[in-house]
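For homework, think about our next protein:
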Amino acid sequence: MKAKIFLAHFLILGLSQVSAQFKTTIPLRKDVVHGTLNNGMQYFILHNEWPKERADFYFVQNVGAILEDDNQNGLAHFLEHMAFNGTEHFKGKGIINMLAKHGVTFGRDINAYTAHDETVYNISNVPVKNPVLLDSCLYVLHDWSGFLSLKDAEIDAERGVIHEEWRTRRNADLRIGSQLEPVLYNGSKYGKRDVLGDMDLIDHFKYKQLRDYYKKWYLPNHQAVVIVGDIDPAKIEQQVKKIMGSIPMPSNPAERTYESIPDNDKLLYKLAVDKEAQKTSITFNFKKNKPLVQDFTEFENSIAEQLALQIMNNRFREYIVNNETALLSAGVSHSSLTRLSSLFTLTVNPKNGRLLEAFQQAYTEYERAIQNGFTKEELDRVKENMRTGYQNQLKNKDKISNESWASQLQNYFLEASPVMSLEEEVEFVKSTLDKLDINQVNKLFRALPTEKNQILTVSGPEKENVTYPAETDYTTAIKKIKEQKLEPYTETIANTDLVTDKLTAKPVSKKFEIKGIAAAKGYVLANGAKVIIYPTTLAQDQILFSAFSPGGLSVLPEKDLASSQIAAVLAKNSGLGDFKVTDLQKQLSGKTVKVSPFIGEHYEGFSGSSVKKDLETLLELTYLYFKNPRFETQAYKRIIDYYNNALENVNENNSKIFGDTIALLDTNHNKRTFLLSKENLNQLKFDDASRIYKERISNASDFTFVFVGNIAESDLETINKYLGNISGNQTQEKFTDHKIGMGKGFAKEKLAREMSVPKTSIYVHLENRNVIFSEKNQIMAYMLSQLLDKRYLDKIREDEGGSYGVQTESSLSKNPSSVFSLRVSFDCNPEKDAKLLQIVYDELDTIVRSDVSEKDLSDIKEDLIKSNQQNIKANSYWMNIIVDQLKTGDKFVSSAEYEKLIKSISVKDIKKYAGEVLPKADKVQVVMQPKTNESALK
């Protein structure tokens, strides 16, 4: 009844046009402050408190690569880069430097993307207490609108960066995409604009070509400001009007046009192959026009469509899991193709050499659903899952991120996608689910495929011994399957409780405290298991679960290491108790719960989560993983098939060759370093994997179970009922420290590989085991990577234009023994690799011998404090703190103590620490170069 009144209210209000080509009858949620300035720029401002005292600023431009002229191919994306290289109010790197002072970092918090039809910039996680900072962010958006410096020297410096981004991104998947796009886009302009662009043009375009695109398209009437966060919308609106309203709108602006894709009456087909491709895929696509009016009918249809796609994908999973098939996976999806069109897609991933058979099997199951429809029982399950999902969102609405709401408002501006309050949306979805019947869902599913605008694509590795079926093989198969009268889908459901054992709670033998965290309470159960309960109000209804036991792979003999890699995976994919894995999925319909076992290097255990009402289900699943795990040969075969396929073209997989080489040097070729290959795949034994799991996940006395969130001491009885009835022999195990690490001195390896796109990949790793662990040293270890990261950004990316980005990470760990580690890795231009590698070592030397920038250190401190203030508001933070403390025995460091430690660290401290850990560190260096020997590194 409420939904009908709701609908009538919206229809009376009529159409709202926020996008040039899309309209909606559904009003924007009432608390969004929305307006259009005199210059045509729109703004959307929303108060939201996750995270607290933070705000996100998005600048959305309804222009992208599709608007480039032929002599501008790639310049929309190039212009996006230039937005960070000098503006009217922020010279040079002024935007990045100004924000860094407040802990807002480039890459993580400051970023942008360019697509065919839009370009979007963001400044995220901005502290809101400083009004000058908020105004500064608005001035950044102001300058992005139409006041970029675009200086000749900065443009020339960025050419190399763009070229290196192209080099890094142009992997086998992207190259295959480049082959498929002209067919998917049917000869339209979309097929001629790949966003990154033509590298010859990037290297040689005239400055005027870039400025022409900028002046023509970066106009207020194509732009929107989106601000979401813990702010006063009225005050922000005043500043938006003042700062953004002053931007002039030129006379006679160019009209923003929209490209469409030509229809095709006959099926279009394309086979795309690449020597380095690692998987084979078949897609059967149906191109459709997007609805231009977003109303409640369309919203209802989208709900029905989501349900239909979920049911079909559940069927595919069940079919593959419970039968011997030629399929690795299959699924249906509906995705955006361009601003005006979308694709309904059947995706098939076949086992090697069985493409046509796999396609026939997948298309048969799809056609079975088309002919006979879905069942009411299937619909009821996915309805219940959707209801539960929305109910959980509503309970935890205070944890919906600024980014999530900003993304929705962005889509409202670009495509008039409805943005309601969560309460309104939940009410409407609930009403829709109540009235939606199986006939409506079946009718909508049958309408998804189209008679024309069909596109069939096949992609995979280019190999001499691989022959791909012809187009006619697929079209003949489709015709034959459609002509068959297929039997309706049938299913059997296990109608029994998850746990049928008669269980009663056992006595608690002891209580203990968690030092430093007063509200966390520990209990020892009669079987020796330890339970920690830490109630919080950080989320309305969330329980995080973690369990661990010392031992892991470290206590296994070498002969078991291969099979141990799949032990936990086998258990997860085999089901539990009386339930096959697909029956278990049905049994858990409407529940918000997940539990997953793991066997790591030093610990085995579980990770999981639930809401309060499903806590008992979480405990039942954990109980069954101990008491009655299943190990099915069918699941084992699927795992082996997956690995077989993944390793089929491994000799052409440069990333794996590079990674395996690193792993061997980092561990000094230790015999316990297991690298999966075609040659050792037969060492993964079903019986051994089953045995290893049962040995490692068995003794409750050796386990610690931790619950954080919406949990209370009153839940202990339920916890004890299940965990207390797991057998325990009152013994505790210890892991074995095999002292695995790199060898003494300096180990180097150089690889020369055939590459479709020449690039050098560089990895440098420093490791020092002669170190002392302390909280302060751990912070300084992290600071070293951040200081180096800034230097490498300046020297390698900006000054040399030699790499798209350098990844630097460092840590000081205590478990199993103290070790300092620093890793530097990046892809680069082979012609510059020797010079760039030398810069890596020069900067490592400089940080020890020369001054550290006081400003850089101050920025890093601010970022650490800001991140900590945000982290402590999440249950996951407290789970990690408690588990780490229990494993290491370290004392708890409060947030105030942590921030005091950060502030106490000086330039002198950092230099001293760098001098202690870097010069005497052992080193590993791996360089992978193109075999064509364009490299400067000999």
